[in-house]
Amino acid sequence: MKKSKGLFKAIWKNKTVYMVMFPALLWYLLFVYVPMGGLSLAFKDYKANLGILGSPWVGLENFQNVFKDVAFWESVLRTLKVNILRLLITFPVPIMIALLFNELRMNRYKKVLQIVFTFPHFLSWIIIAGVLKNILAYDGFINNLIKLCGGEIISFLGSKKLFQPMLYITDIWKEAGWGCIVYLAAISGIDQEQYEAADIDGATRWQKMFRITIPSITPTIAIMFILAAGGIMSAGFDQIFNMTNAAVREAGEILDMYIYRITFQATPDFGFSMAVSLFRSVVNMVLLLIADRGSRFFGGNGLFG
Amino acid sequence: MKKRLMALMLVIVLTLSACGSPGNSDEKESTKAQETQNSVADNTEEKEEKYAEHVTISLASVQVNESTDYNNGDDFTKWWRETYNFDWDITGLSWDVWAERLRVWINSGDMPDVATWDYNHGEAMNYIEQGLLYRLPDDWKERWPNVAAAYEDSQLGPALEEMVGGTYLLPKPIFSTVKPTEKVVPHVTCYMRKDWAEAVGFEIKDYYTVTELLEYARLIKEQDPGNVGDALVPIAARPEMALNIFVKSNSTHAAGGFYKDADGNYQWGPASEDTLTGLQLYKQAYEEGLISPEFYAYTGSDDNAEFYVTGVAGLTMFQGMAGAMTTCEKQIRDNLSLEYDDVVHTCFVIGEDGKYHSPEQINYWTAVIFSPNISQEVFERYMDMMDFAASEEANIFIRMGFEGVDWKYDENGEVVSLLGDQVASQKYPSVYPCYDAMYILADEFQLINPSYRKEFRDRVVELYQGKYEMGDEESIPSIDWDVQLYSSDAVNKLSYDWITEYAELVLEEGDLETNWKNWIGEQEYLIQPVIDELNAEFGGK
Amino acid sequence: MNGIKKKKVSLMSKLKKKKISSMDIVAFLVLTLGGIIVLFPFWNMIVISFTTQKEYMETPLLIFPKNPVLEAYQALVGDGRIWIGFRTTFLYLLLGVPLNLFLTTSLAYGLSRKDYPGSKLIRALILFTMLFGGGIIPLYLVMKSMHLTNTIWAVILAYGVNTFNAILMSKFFASLPESLLESAKLDGAGDWKMLYYIIIPLSKPIFATITLFYTVDRWNEWYNSMIFVRKNSLQPLQLVLRSIVIDSQVQAKIASMGVVSIEQYAFDMAVKMAAVVVTIIPVMCVFPFLQKHFVKGVMIGAVKE
């Protein structure tokens, strides 16, 4: 009794916080949580005429069907392999670029370069795939260069071994410049006094970078890493979808490609695809929690430190 | 020679019948096609009464240009709107998202009045069962006889109707008044460099086995009659076309079909020996460099472009209709400064057994569906319009425009276009997508459309008939409706991309036969249940 | 006091400018090289948009078109659709981005504080939405029941808060100096005042970043429009470009099928690339305006004194 009174008091005391948050929470309720009811389709046989609520429950049948499919498990393992490697390889690049931008002193040039670096973000993968083909084909630019130097032609487009490295490289090309914006913002928020103090102590710029800049943006790096870890199961669909071909398909058959195949080529079954995406979300959640705990373990703040 | 003559006669007969007999003047007067927008007044009174209520028809279709005004944009659409007293509310569905948009709307119970739907059997059964599609009134065939007649030609419509006991969708027939062969076969055709074949001394015929084609490719590769050099691609084929050329030409059911063997047991096409034969030839072509070393990286119609844009290919395969030949002619002239007649020879591919292979094609492409919430007025109005569109008079009206303005009969009673290089659908942008494919598709008119060269139209019919004559009941089997209209969990789960699957097998290292057998084995857990179900339901002789 | 310090700093930086350290060289070289790698395919794309199909196919890598043609741009502009697209997208930006910023700020403020009852629960619920979703059909039904389908409001409201952005912003809020907020509280500032008079003015870098993110998301938006809006006159730029590009691609493929008449045939690769150029130009014009907020040395240090 006493406790609940205390709670009420605490709520009343903070009433304006709730009021500030109210519009956002209302939005989440209406446009995210009400449709969230669709998750129940993973346990149902969706009948449009009966609606989501009225559709009959089928228990775990959808999951049984999913887990029975050999192709499903193969795609899950491949997704983990491809995207964990992707995370480890591509994640540090934007941080490095942001740090270098921070150190570049030619201001005009810096501004121009920053814009240039964000360009590729605006290209869709379908376009990039087209250009890549032009550059990497057996009669394309790079192979002509290799031929000129007397080398052997490399089949960039048809090699299963090269497919995954190509995914990482093109991913960096497209997103690293854009990804560094977050870190640039974090860097610009660093208290200038620290640098001034370091200047007085006669620190070199490398020292300042490692002792001031990087530690100051570590919280941002941690959040970005945790969030990226939570997207491991769903990363890279658009890229692979556009870059794949018959010769390398196997190397790129990730979970989302599997879902695409299930939803778009066969007769669609909402229960089945919802079961797959629920599974994907759960794995993402586990990965996110692991990353979050890991970050705390190493002294970071975690997602909601 | 005899064949050629027959084809010629057929075309003449068809041309005459489709154009209506011009000598018969009272019939001529009454056809709606001849009403130009000036003479709509003729029977407006009767119409005004029937269509007193103004309606708005919402339609979702492919081929819509979002900036075209479909209500007032041109005289053609004006004629329709004045005649039938309605407004369009049109939604464009671009090709790649077509299925997805309609699927969300249908499943949310919120589809437009009328839609062009890419029919999928499992989905159709699902929608019909749930009442998500409008069921046409039982007497619709009497009320709209032209639609009903064309509907019979679609094959799918009546078969589905018999199965579910009602009409829920109207598949659009490809051929209705004009049919090039008794059973419809695919029109994809090989385009060969005639000048190159002659230069290397390769015999020009209407059809070749794959082995013969490979021979041609080898000769080209050795002698390079076009002096193309390194860029030469003897056979330019993206995986889709390679599948046609090498595999489907040998194996009737290669694309995942289920068929009955001699004992009345169901078999799966990809597992047949013919498929292996085709795959071996495919692999041979790849390994010998007779197709592009990166044929799997072609996108769009890159492969065809190597034939008619850069001129580095000795053979390619694409659509075999008069429109396609016209495209090819124009491209070759623009890009290579060559004349189609001097350098191009069209032909088709037969199996190693000397027969043409392809299951009979169901004579439809997409279906008209109606919203279950459609109002009676809108439904009836649209059906009236479709009924007119499915009439013989409308056929020429829709494809060629107004008589006297866009076309006329010449002194021999033949239709002559007055639009020069243009076709009616360019003069009137509203023709797509509202009217051109309203019910009967435009394909059949290509066989008789005077805008295309007569040589092309004749050749198309020749090729159709040639294919048909080279097959028999086994290599061109009739539609097995039991299988076509079978739907179950096991069958709905099958989703293969045949083009990629076969290309993968060809590209895989190691022995093709072993790989193929392994692959068949891997699919067994999906395929065997379907075969068991089919055998239990329809097995036996 | 302040003025003297500033002078000192500028003097020091002047001194530094004379000496070129290894850092300068590394930053310059790496970023310049990166810029070239980014621009190279880009130049290729621009060139392709001016080339004929024949030249494109015959030249391994185009550096400059021999006979530049404008066909692709004519196809794109003459199509008419692109103007509809620009108009709609402009509306999305005008109405959508302010809403995004308002909702995100209110949520971020709530997330940045931990001292009210239910803060943990709210955080967990918000985080949950990053990982789980009910799919498109339930959301469609919600929009339909609110009579929002076929209006731009469906598209604007469907994307209210990007949880990722809200977390970034809340992290920035949380990193603001505690003492500042405490002193404001002592002065009797409520939550509203705190947010609008103290926090927001201090958070310019993150606002610039988040504004950029939302602007780009709205600019690129097409999926929700595709599902929720049927009117042809309300299609956004990306969807319109998409249908132009896809149509040209499909037309190239089926130009011969009889469904499409031949003169509509266009070289699809060039049209695609022209579409890219047309989409990027406005972005290039807007970016420099936002960029000035990324510059280093925001007032935080000054305020603290």
Task: Report a brief summary of the structure.
The complex is a heterotrimer of chains A (305), B (541) and C (305). Chain B is of the alpha/beta class.
Notes on the protein architecture:
- The complex is a heterotrimer of chains A (305), B (541) and C (305).
- With 305 residues, chain A is mostly helical.
- Helices cover 71% and strands 0% of the residues of chain A.
- Chain A has 15 helices and no strands.
- Chain B folds into two domains: 245 residues, D-Maltodextrin-Binding Protein, domain 2 (3-Layer(aba) Sandwich); 227 residues, D-Maltodextrin-Binding Protein, domain 2, CATH 3.40.190.
- Chain B has a five-stranded mixed sheet with strand order 2-1-3-12-4.
- In chain B, 46% of the residues lie in helices and 12% in strands.
- With 305 residues, chain C is mostly helical.
- Chain C has one domain: Orthogonal Bundle (MetI-like fold).
- Helix content of chain C is 73%, strand content 0%.
- Chain C is built from 16 helices and no strands.
- In chain C, helix 9 runs antiparallel to helix 12.
- The longest helix of chain C is centred in the N-terminal third of the chain and has 32 residues.
- Chain C is flat, with a radius of gyration of 25 Å.
- The N terminus and C terminus of chain C are likely disordered.
- Chains A and C meet through helix 1, helix 2, helix 6, helix 7 and helix 8 of A and helix 1, helix 2, helix 5, helix 6 and helix 7 of C.
| CATH C-level category of the domain at 69-125 and 154-297 in chain A | Mainly Alpha
CATH class of the largest domain in chain B, please? Alpha Beta
Into which percentage range does the β-strand content of chain B fall? 5-15%
Coarse structural class of chain A:
mainly alpha
CATH topology of the domain at 69-125 and 154-297 in chain A: MetI-like fold
Low-confidence regions of chain B: 1-42
How many H/I helical runs of chain A? 15
The total strand number of chain A stands at 0
Category by helix and strand content of chain B: alpha/beta
**Biggest β-sheet description of chain B:** 5 strands, mixed
- Cα gyration radius of chain A (Å): 25 Å
What name goes with the CATH superfamily of the domain at 69-125 and 154-297 in chain A?
A: MetI-like
Largest sheet of chain A: none
Instruction: Please name the CATH topology of the largest domain in chain B.
Output: D-Maltodextrin-Binding Protein, domain 2
Q: How many domains of chain B? A: 2
Q: How many beta-strand runs of chain B?
A: 14
CATH architecture classification name of the largest domain in chain B: 3-Layer(aba) Sandwich
Question: What's the shape of chain B?
Answer: globular
Radius of gyration of chain B: 25 Å
Shape, principal axes of CA atoms of chain A:
flat
